[in-house]
Amino acid sequence: MSDIERRLPTAPLPTFLLLFVIAVILRAYTFGNPFVEFDEQFYRLVGDRMFHGAIPYVDIWDRKPVGLFVIYYAIRATLGENVLAYQLVATAVVAATAALVRTLAVRLKADGFGAWAAAIGYIIWAGLLQGEGGQSSVFYNLPMALAALIALDGGSASRISLFLRGVLAMALVGLAIQIKYTVAFEGIFFACYLLLAAWRTDRSLLRLCGFAFCWALIALIPTLVAIAVYARIGHLDAYIFANFISIFRQGNAPFLDRMGDLATCMGILLIPLAAAFATRWRRDEPNGVLAFCRIWFVCALTAVMIFNRFSPHYCIALVLPLMVIAAPAAQKFRRLTVTLLIVGAVSGQILLGVYQWQKGGPAEGKAMMAAIGPVPHCLYVHDGFPALYLLTNSCLLTRFAFPGHLNTATDAPALGVDPVAEVNRIMAQHPDAVVSDRPLFWLRNQATQAALDRALARDYHLVLKLRTGADRFRLVYRRNDPGSISTGRI
Question: Which of 211, 133, 221 is nearest to 176 (CA)?
Fold first, then answer.
């Protein structure tokens, strides 16, 4: 072990603080940019509207679990609406998760260099997969990493200690489920691992069934609480439709498009995948740790494959077990690991610049806000940045404020309303400004686009055509008649 490795902290707080500094350095380019990723722009909008009394699924609609919106609401309520607030919270969460990656890697005897390489690698590769901000996976990976550590350490515990560890692990899984439902697959594996440990400790089938029932109930408690709250306020139907029914009505992109996305994810993960395959069982490895981590990865991958959507941020869940598995190989091939970490970090910074160039950043946002102007009768973003609602302090004319819900064909069957009628209703309220994009998304909803185009041709004029990237234009339209009055604001 080198002198540098000996100086690296091992206590939890110093470890977290050092990883937080590293995460800040790697993510600082995005700080203050409200247009980092479309999804988290919307989550931030929902959190802000909840702060002002809106009810998710009723006043503002999406199909994500309510726990994700509660996180953004809590950030808004405690730290204010500044975009830097959620970005720093997300950075702290990434650093805490990386610290747990280091702890898990130590269980594989990857002391010192290997464990720290895995932790830093987690920060880098999460960013490469669109986790540079506050995607849902950034938040749910933290409770899942802690649940995995608790489950893993419970393999040799006594009966009572094992039961309590299962309670805590499943409570964490339950919280993670209310951020993203797909983590249930990983949670089921953690429970099965603990049940196997319980069976080895005490071969009582009755007690085993009791453990399984209690742990399953605890994992479901956050979701049951959410259901009870919505039933209490009279909106259970809205909750059930958005969280469970809508998911299965949503259409899929064409097969080749999805395979292209999957290939992109696997290409980004090629280095940690190769390192994970290079890791071999060792005689001094604690019993079953590597097998646990490999099965954990398979469960996370199964969740991604079953839901059949492969945008890069869906694969951030895979980085967590992969980096743990890769730690021993990283320790063995130190010089190569340092080189790959540097390549990953530099690539991440280049990607952040490319993303901002393609999508737009603070300068483009200011130009769009100037073109939008005052919006006493609301803004409508048909295609573009949900963050514009926040930046202009606009009211909402529709509960479908995430642009993709009304402008893509795959979402049309999953909304519970006729999207064309909804667009016509929005435009009948004469919003002060309308935001759209060109060229049109090839999976666009042609019917809603036609309804928008008719209204724009009749009542609006183009005031801004702003280029972002090589061939993308952000369009802002203003209403011809400034005296029109809108209704039905949210």
Answer: 221
What stretches of 201-273 adopt beta strand conformation (E)? none
Residue 137, CA distances (Å) to 150, 159, 471 in order: 20, 33, 30
For residues 156 and 162, give the distance between their C-alpha atoms in angstroms, rounded to a whole number. Answer: 8
Using a 10 angstrom Cβ sphere, with 0-12 exposed, 13-18 middle and 19 or more buried, the burial of residue 53 is exposed
- Parallel, antiparallel, or unpaired for β 472-479 and 460-468? antiparallel
Question: Which H or E run includes 369?
Answer: helix 362-372
Beta strands in 300-418 (DSSP E): 379-381
Q: What's the pLDDT tens digit per position in 181-191?
A: 999 999 999 99
Helices and strands (DSSP H and E) totals, the chain: 22, 4
Q: Report the side by side order of strands in the sheet with 472-479.
A: 379-381, 433-438, 472-479, 460-468
Alpha helices (runs of H) in 52-107, residue ranges in sequence order: 66-79, 83-107
222 upstream amide cis, omega within 30 of 0 = no
Q: Are 37 and 313 in contact (CB under 8 A)?
A: yes
- Cα–Cα distance for residue pair 304/273, rounded to 1 Å: 16
Structure token pair of residue 474? 């952000």
pLDDT higher than 90, residue 244: yes
Distances (CA, A) of 305 to 259, 301, 310: 11, 6, 8
CA nearest neighbour of 372 among 361, 362, 381, 359? 381
C-alpha to C-alpha distance for 72 and 90, rounded to whole angstroms: 10
Q: Residues with Cβ < 8 Å from 120, sequence gap 6 or more?
A: 19, 22, 98, 341
CA 95, 97, 98, 103 dihedral sign is positive
Higher pLDDT, 308 or 18: 18
Coil vs helix vs strand at 374: coil
Report the alpha-carbon distance of residue 394 to residue 380 in Å, rounded: 9
Burial of 250 (0-12, 13-18, 19+ CB in 10 A): middle
What are the percentages of helix, strand and coil residues in the chain, rounded to 5?
Answer: 70, 5, 25
Instruction: Give residue 160's pLDDT.
Output: 87
In this structure, are residues 114 and 105 in contact, taking their beta carbons and an 8 Å threshold? yes
State how far the Cα of 376 lies from the Cα of 434, in Å rounded to an integer.
Answer: 13
Torsion 367-373-379-382 (CA) sign: negative
Bridge partner residues of 479 (DSSP): 460
Position 445 confidence tier, pLDDT thresholds 50, 70, 90: very high
Entry field: residues in the chain = 490
Nearest to 106 by CA among 24, 224, 9: 9
DSSP structural state of residue 411 = G
Q: How far apart are CA 401 and CA 403, in angstroms?
A: 6
